[in-house]
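Invent a record, attention on tokens:
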Amino acid sequence: MTQKSNTNSSKNYVLPIAIMFALFFMIAFVTGYQNPLGTVIKEMTGGNTLMSQLGNLANFIAYLAMGIPAGYLLQGKGYRKTAIYAVLVGFSGVFITYLSGMISDNMVACTVYLCGALVAGFSMCMLNTVVNPMLNSLGKNQNQGNQLVQFGGTCNSLGATLAPVIVGGLLGGEANSIATANPVFFMAMGIFAAAFLVLYFSKLPEAPAIDSKDKEEKVSVSGALRYRNFLFGVVAIFCYVGIEVGIANMTMQYLSDSKLVINNNALKSEAIAGTIVGVYWLLMLVGRLVGGLIGGKVSSRVMLTATSLAAIVFLILGITSSESIISFIGFSSGNLEFSTANIPLNAIFLIACGLCTSVMWGAIYNLSVEGLGKYTAVASGVFMMMVCGGGILPLIQAGIVDAAGSALAGFWLTVGLAAYLLLYALLLSRPSSKLPLEEEDLYEDGVEVKA
């Protein structure tokens, strides 16, 4: 009887699991298509690099605003309803972005586009709060739940890889209108609509309620911030997301501003740039797979130290090495056919940073929550808010580019951020010898206890 029930349950949840995978893909895809669309905004605003990063800023700053409300929504409404609200918000955000392509006035169109990016960012934050625990609950047991989450993470990397490639290919050499990417918006809205219908008509299991003991109700963010490794870890995760997004965005800008050559014809092509930046996200996918294989044997501190140092080396080589032309794979203008493209040599070093950024999040998280105990949950919430670094730091990087008149100059900020991660790995991530105590920790059943 029980086995039959489990089998039916497995059959019933095949489609919802597939939709969760699709949502994992969409989180990265909707976030990732801001990069090639940034080149369109740059053209529409007279070549302003700073303006090209505003959509990315809106998408990520939403995490700062929505992190805590999403947590409360999840606590009050559960996984299924929160997921339904999230896909509705996501559909709305993409639809607003689609509408911006119908406006002839460039400044008005850009304003509407930014509103769409902000709303989409709200959805991405809500989905990030839901998809991991929901997939885990859809598994027949804990091991299968963890396996589903790992498959979901792979879909996430795949979405990040394909976003600049597909959007860049659709834009081709005509990067003067958001409407060129309408097929991408239709696809995104279609997946969100399908996800809504499946979630609405499916009976998904809710995770058991969190056991709220009296002392756990007193847990606060301020208590977690008293731990040195977490305090500096919050800064580290802010820097990391800025590094990850900043490298992709500014490499896209650098290649778009270069006279790229494809099939012996020189042209300014977002299609080629999108393809090349897609390799960066593909290397992140490879790095995550490798990191998972060696994670049981290599400590988080060693992993973060090695990748931070390697990133610094790659970035400096990307800034200072030769811009001589080498052959690479790119898209021909106006369609999605692969052709041989000639790009600057130093761009290869920038793209290679994907191998480094792939495992940084997990390493920083593990080092940051070491020894936190009951504060681990609230620490995870703060981490979600720090994703906003992916919007703030690339904007600063773009400002440096405009001030210096060189796309490569902005990467010096990324070098500095990577240097902080190296410092964190070597020194700042080491827990204090004596853990802090909050006032409520000093009393047990009204009786004072010794530290």
About this structure: Residues 220-430 form a domain with the Growth Hormone; Chain: A; fold (CATH 1.20.1250.20). The mean pLDDT is 75. The first strand starts at residue 260 and ends at 262. The first helix runs from residue 2 to 12.
